[in-house]
Amino acid sequence: MKLGLHLSIKGSIDRAVDRAVENDCNILQIFSRNPRRWHSKKLVLNEIESFKAKLRKNGICPVFIHTPYLLNLSSPKEDVYRKSVIALKSELRRAFELSVPYIVTHLGSHLGFGKREGFTRIVGAINESFSVVENDVTLLLENTAGTRNSMGSSFEDIEYIVSRIEDGARVGICFDTSHAFAAGYDLVSQGAIEYTLQKFDEIIGLNELKLVHLNDSKGGLNSGVDKHEHIGLGKIGESGFRNILKSRLRQLPLILETPIDKRRSDIDNLRKVRELAK
């Protein structure tokens, strides 16, 4: 089973690999820079080489980079939109420098201007970025929880975007269990999970699915609440994750983005996943 965490790059980017080893991960997700600032520092050559060497030494593969929180590829605000497109191009380049095959991005919010405008913005941002940055990094579009004005909470909406990307081979999907559940896709019983995956396959295609963000949900089914919970302690629950880990999703890389609090540590969440997967 390919199982890992989103881990900090504090100190230097290669320290994230040390943290992955400490937490017994065989895959890894990171931010390539400060996720709360538009400006990013250039990657340092010796840190790049150390990052790659540690990944090889410890057999951690694949690795994923998540785009910064600030990006809003749907934004009707021109300044935010242009900064978001510039940041997306930057992340594509940084991933290539680090030999990271995938970056994950949220699709943003149309801020009340409507889905049609949001679709136009997202498709334009990705097509422009791919036309300027020509490399083999795959961009993974992450489904959202269905919060007000958010883009990409339904499989149909994601397919609409994917089908309009000019270089479709460079796009895939990241499936977040917490977001899907909050958006109305049942992931508790075996039958419900199979039905959800069947709908995904019919609309988008399971071959497009490259990563699962394995998170429980504080919000109930179809609540539109985007709040992650520790594995088994939310509304999906232990039985839900036991069934998820029997499904086809188990064959994909699984990254946890569970809360940071005193109730349970990252390594405890990993242990819980392994326990439920038995």
> Can you tell me the number of structural domains?
1
Mean pLDDT: 97
CATH class: Alpha Beta
Globally, the shape reads globular
Enter the CATH topology name.
TIM Barrel
The share of residues in extended strands comes to 5-15%
Distance between the termini: 11 Å
Rg measurement, Å? 18 Å
CATH superfamily: Divalent-metal-dependent TIM barrel enzymes
Outline the biggest β-sheet.
8 strands, parallel, barrel
The helix/strand class is alpha/beta
Approximate helicity band: 25-40%
Number of β-strand runs: 10
| Uncertain stretches | none
Give the SSE string: EHEHEHEHEHEHHEEEHEH
Strands ordered across the widest β-sheet: 1-2-3-4-5-6-7-10
**Count of DSSP-assigned helices:** 9
| Shape-level CATH architecture | Alpha-Beta Barrel
* Quaternary: single chain
Keywords:
TIM Barrel; alpha/beta; 278 residues
Structural account:
The chain is built from 9 helices and 10 strands. The chain is globular and about 45 Å long. It is α/β, with parallel strands linked by helices and 278 residues long. Helices cover 39% and strands 14% of the residues. The strands form 2 sheets. It has an 8-stranded parallel beta barrel. It has a two-stranded antiparallel ribbon with strand order 8-9. The relative contact order is 0.12. It has a single domain (3-277), classed as Divalent-metal-dependent TIM barrel enzymes (TIM Barrel, Alpha-Beta Barrel), CATH 3.20.20.150.
